[in-house]
Amino acid sequence: MEVTMLSDAEVLKNSQTSPWMFGILVDRYEEAFIRKGEYVLRSREDAEDAVQDTFLKIYKYASKFSERKNASFQSWAYKILTNTCYTHLSKKMKEIARTQMLDFAELDVVNGLDNSEEGNRSSVAQSILLRLPERLSRLLSLYFFEDKSYAEIADVEHISISAVRSGLHRAKKQFKELGVEIS
Fold first, then answer.
1. What is the pLDDT of residue 47?
2. Which ranges carry the RNA polymerase sigma factor 70 region 4 type domain (predicted)?
3. How confident is the model at residue 181 (pLDDT cuts 50, 70, 90)?
4. Distances from the Cα of 152 to the Cαs of 11, 91, 92, 96, 170, in angstroms?
5. Where are the alpha helices (DSSP H) in 42-160?
6. SS3 content of the chain, % helix, strand, coil (to 5)
7. In the chain, what are the domains?
8. Is 85 exposed, middle or buried (CB count within 10 Å of its CB: 0-12, 13-18, 19+)?
9. Which of 36, 44, 59, 132 is least crowded, fewest Cβ atoms below 10 Å from its Cβ?
10. How far apart, in whole angstroms, are the C-alpha atoms of residue 55 and residue 25?
11. In whole angstroms, what is the distance from residue 41 CA to residue 140 CA?
12. Residue pair 123/110 in contact by the 8 Å Cβ criterion
């Protein structure tokens, strides 16, 4: 039988003993994975990194895959891709939170600090962001650093717009409380 006629699950299984066969799956899915990754990460370079990590995970965990009635190789692989993209996005947001200053005029938090102390304001903001729960820090980063609308954040985070609104409210409230604690 010609290898290109094999199902994805069969190719994955055979790649355990013939690693060259894994290249067939890469050929079949790489471009589609990159498009999905670009949609989530908004960067082709980041998407390519996430796709490479995804293929490594698929190969590493190939022995754990078992095709079920409602779960195909494709759905399993896309789940790994999605999780990998969100892990990359989370790391990217944490890096942004560490390197950029939050828009204090919008949050109205560090008004007690002298305006000439910009460096101090930045340090305080970064310190506060790192103390917030990851989800709340990510919401603030998307809203303030990337200027995302509530609808865009809802799409990226796979939550409703009202959940974005309440999450941002909670995040701002905790940010303010932590800001008062620090100053």
1. 96
2. 126-174
3. very low
4. 37, 19, 17, 18, 18
5. 44-60, 73-99, 104-107, 118-131, 134-140, 150-157
6. 75, 0, 25
7. 3-92 (1.10.1740.10), 100-182 (1.10.10.10)
8. buried
9. 44
10. 9
11. 17
12. no
